[in-house]
Prior knowledge:
The protein is mainly α. 68% of the residues lie in helices and 0% in strands. Helix 1 packs antiparallel against helix 4, helix 3 (36-61) packs antiparallel against helix 4 (66-89) and helix 3 (36-61) runs antiparallel to helix 5.
Amino acid sequence: MTKSIFGLSENIAALLSYLFGGILGIVILIMERENKFVRFHGMQAVLLWLVYLVVAFVVNIIPFISGILASMLSTLATLIVIFMMYKSFRGEIFKLPVIGEVAYTQVNKE
């Protein structure tokens, strides 16, 4: 298994990109220039959290059911992140709908 610029195995570096609301994904995108697997997961993590923030903002505008929807959204986002951490740890590139393709295209356009 190849290493990332951080000295970690690529699957661990990819897994970590999904932590802390995509902040580590941003760090990985800035620092990692060589490993496309790690960069893909970093990009996808950032896009996932951006989509989550936009949807959460819209859900919280709805007055009566915002609490229920926000709770469901948080649960869904948590499950997606856990699933993506599992896939990245297994060394797989799993593209989430829409954002996965965007992330893959951005990482591989060089």
